[in-house]
Amino acid sequence: MKATIIRPPVMMPAFNMAYNIVPPLGPAYIAGALRAEGVDVTFLDAVGLSIEQYTTVEHGILHGLTLEQLVAKIPEDADMIGVAIQFSYEWPTARDLLKLIRARFPEVLLIAGGEHATAVPELCLHDSPLDAVVLGEGEESVCELARAYKKEGIEGLKQVAGLHLKDGPTAHGERIREIDKIPRPAWDLIPIEEYLSRRYGFGVDRGRSMPVLASRGCPYQCTFCSNPFMWTTRWIARDIDDLLNELATLQKTYDISNFDFYDLTVIVKRQWIVDFCRAIESRGMKFTWQLPSGTRSEAIDPEVSGLLYKTGCRNISYAPESGSEESLTKIKKKVSMPMMLRSMRGAVLSGLNTKANFIFGFPHENWSHIRADVWLMVKMAVVGVHDISIWTFVPYPGSELFFQLKKEGKIKELDDEYFYGLAAYSDITKTHSFAPALSKTGMLWARGIAILFFYAVSWTIRPWRLLRMIWNFASGHFESRSEQALRGLFDRGYKWLSKPTLATKA
Fold first, then answer.
1. Is the Cβ–Cβ distance between 80 and 106 less than 8 Å?
2. Residue 93's closest CA among 133, 142, 60?
3. Cα–Cα distances in Å, from 334 out to 160, 197, 237, 297?
4. Pairing mode of beta strands 236-237, 258-261
5. 132-134 and 209-212: which strand pairing?
6. CB neighbours of 265 closer than 8 A, spacing ≥ 6?
7. 499 pLDDT band (50/70/90 cuts)?
């Protein structure tokens, strides 16, 4: 059986603060699982295949191959085509891609997976020519799907757990429990050197960087997050020796100097992270590593911070989300701010470059909540936190707040405008407000002023950081996420303004 796995081009606002030029870890796991099953796999990474190509479209920039270019590369003898749909704001692009694929391959089995597809499978199946959606963790389900399709055709899919078909869901799929038995990502099928040679990655540029997962799932239930819908709240950590064996193989095969951990929450159990650091030391392994996604503070005391730095960790992100106790309660963010501030202070003293993530504009919020956020940012600037990111709230499909707002009629149609609007969370030029007490214009100003306020306090206390930031921005040597995000914003904005090209729509 022959399968083609596709990572579509990335859709982003022209003035996007998020950094999206990253190797496709999730689809690479799916490709690796299928290959281990005996399937002949072709991987088409639209970004990696044309990593310097940016095409302006109506709602921003399309990064990578155009849809037509991508479809033209699909092998004619493909039996199954799978499209990864991770972020919901990319759904209109993915839907148009699916229509083009179906036009060229009217009989092929067409499937999709990822967080967006898991969150709204009925919409995906209704608005596109998909045959099936693979729900949640996909490695086991997609292999069972391949076996069933090869044996019985499309009718055989009804017996496969963890799918959603045109006529409804199949049996409930279980989480993968033995995660150390999951085949490793098929990086050899992807133009990975395109990323490595340009030093692209999710974290700060610290050399040739590869993404890895040390765990799966998250034990928390934040109301703004779709991950519980995708992964459930069961957190499973990998065997440390198996993880380090993978890192050693990647170092040797691809000359890797840095690893970006894509985990939802790496540091949950203190003993696991201590054992991980001790194992790095005992093996004498040398590399840098980062936790760019955000982590918990409870397990990061001065001893852990020191171990993190000693074993190569250089950048760590915290996720307080809000400085308001009321907001923390409403969004089910179980965190102690005094404990987090102590953890941050210890991390800074240990030499770690620290960052904090905030979200403005939860539906219940007003200006008193924003003031509480800014006050917490001031405290973080005083203890030495290097960076902050302020995103604006958007109701992501699959999250508890999405279902709540939809039930209340505040999300009326899941149309293209809604999906494109989800990208506004990281767009510095526009936003949306789902909080009646906060206007869109007010939110934009609040975000800008809060960022300036944080850095003004930080640089007043530590003026050398401003000079270092200017030097790093000019030289292209980054130490923080904000430096890298600003440079990426500058580069994309320049390309967008200087070379506008309208992409053809499906």
1. no
2. 60
3. 37, 40, 21, 11
4. unpaired
5. unpaired
6. 215, 218, 219, 220, 235, 293, 294, 295, 296
7. low
How many whole angstroms from its chain centre is CA 378? 27
Q: What stretch of H or E contains 367?
A: helix 367-383
What DSSP element (H or E) covers 152? Answer: helix 139-152
Half-sphere exposure for 388 (CA within 13 Å, toward CB):
32
Q: 55: which residues sit within 8 A by CB, 6+ positions away?
A: 9, 61, 62, 66, 501, 502, 503
The 3-class secondary structure across 428-493, one letter per residue, is CCCCCCCCCCCCHHHHHHHHHHHHHHHHHHHHHHCCHHHHHHHHHHHHCCCCCHHHHHHHHHHHHH
Coil/strand/helix, residue 220: coil
Question: 280 pLDDT band (50/70/90 cuts)?
Answer: very high
Higher pLDDT, 18 or 435: 435
Handedness of CA 249, 252, 253, 258 (dihedral sign): positive
What are the chain's domains?
A: 2-169 (3.40.50.280), 203-393+435-462 (3.20.20.70)
CB 265 within 8 A of CB 219: yes
Average pLDDT, the chain: 90
Residue 356 φ/ψ, nearest 5 degrees: -125, 140
Please report which confidence band the pLDDT of residue 221 belongs to, taking 50, 70 and 90 as the band edges: confident
- Which amino acid, one-letter code, is at 393? F
What gap in Å lies between CA 359 and CA 425, rounded to an integer?
9
